[in-house]
């Protein structure tokens, strides 16, 4: 009789064989003709930068346009989730004199930890990493390159911001699977709308007290990497400050039926950011619908003195709200205030009171929320 471990191992190797067979058929039949290196925006310091990405079949997904209907949106999202990943191929990265080569994993992902050999004179800007696929996947594929981007915050940053996405920036119904399915598959970056005032509030936080866009912002979400380009496009269209998106792989692995839990993924990424920027304190923004309060509480326990403020958008039932308030009491004992809010303007007023944003920006946030 199969135990869970053996069942998992069998399922994993069966899935691997199917994926390898699918790729072989795709190359033989010409379905897989064009390969792309898809980098995800990285981050780091002038000592070390981190960049991950994926090698996949070029999906040919075009930016969202006015008039795209539900079927067009569904087809684009289907392409994102039914990607043809390219495992076991070499990718080379070049950045500030450091050149490294890595091999993609079973899901086509690659990861670089680059150490600049040249002095980066001006930090606080997006830097480019040159990427090149070194192996031939399909015949006559030509040269396959891409430019990755890494963000290096300036030394003048007052604090950092780490935000969730689902039900924090944009309504998704993350606790209701059908509502989330509808929002994900039948809308696009134009028709998905953020909560009122989010763009203005995040801009105000990024600008801080000196009104210079120095404060780095990071987006940590349990959404799959398949949605990376969609979420990046969403942020740009709705004028929400850009920052690294730290998503997760939800595929089957040797160890788990679903790779990485929601809580573990988010906590690991948040604490990684803390470690990369040991001199920065952070504002954490999330919602009450899933486990953001619990995750943020653990982050405060693990890294005392690193969190300035926590804002939680209240999207829950009365029972869950009571639990979130209990967590707020625990956080207060640790010296961190959790502010439970019903809208963005309430969070902005608190941030103004705490001296994290300036009064000149409050009017724009209030106008968006009241409208």
TrEMBL record:
SUPFAM superfamilies: HAD-like. GO terms for molecular function: phosphatidate phosphatase activity. Pfam families: APP1_cat. InterPro entries: APP1_cat (IPR019236), HAD-like_sf (IPR036412), Mg2+_PAP (IPR052935). Residues 159-314 form the Phosphatidate phosphatase APP1 catalytic domain. This is DUF2183 domain-containing protein. It comes from Litoribacter ruber.
